[in-house]
Amino acid sequence: MNNRNEEPEGMEIRLGEKVFLLLPQKALYIPDIAVLVIADAHLGKAMHFRKEGIFLPAQSAAADYQVLEELMVRYRPQQVWFLGDLFHSAYNTEWAYFRAFRSRYQRVPFL
């Protein structure tokens, strides 16, 4: 049973013999092949809006990476699949955050 402070594991869905976990972090985990699937991450969004004069707290980018980190630690995927819109905009400083994050998981293919 989960501790009350822990986020739920997610909703298990079965399609034929395959099991998929729909995660509350807007991700999907496929246990049989240890793949974490993330769609429409839109990294760099906060910096893009800030450059355009629309205020978004700088912590919003940190929160995105915190969620990614928690998913990596909890599920220990052998691969991470990004489906569409990994980055929200053209190059900005938040790409360096992704590069740093990615460097911590060099043995895990990010596709």
Shape: globular
How far is the first residue's CA from the last residue's CA? Answer: 33 Å
What does the largest sheet look like? 5 strands, mixed
Structural class: alpha+beta
Lateral arrangement of strands in the main beta sheet: 1-2-3-4-5
Number of strands: 5
Helical proportion, percent range:
25-40%
Mean pLDDT: 79
* Beta-strand fraction estimate: 15-25%
Tally of helical segments: 3
SSE string, helices as H and strands as E: EEEEHHEH
Unreliable stretches (pLDDT < 50, length at least 5) are 1-5
Walk me through the structure:
With 111 residues, the chain is of the alpha+beta class. Helix content is 31%, strand content 23%. The chain contains three helices and five strands; from the N terminus they run E-E-E-E-H-H-E-H. The protein has a five-stranded mixed sheet with strand order 1-2-3-4-5, covered by helices on one side.
Search tags:
111 residues; alpha+beta; 5-stranded mixed β-sheet; 3 helices; 5 strands; globular; disordered N terminus
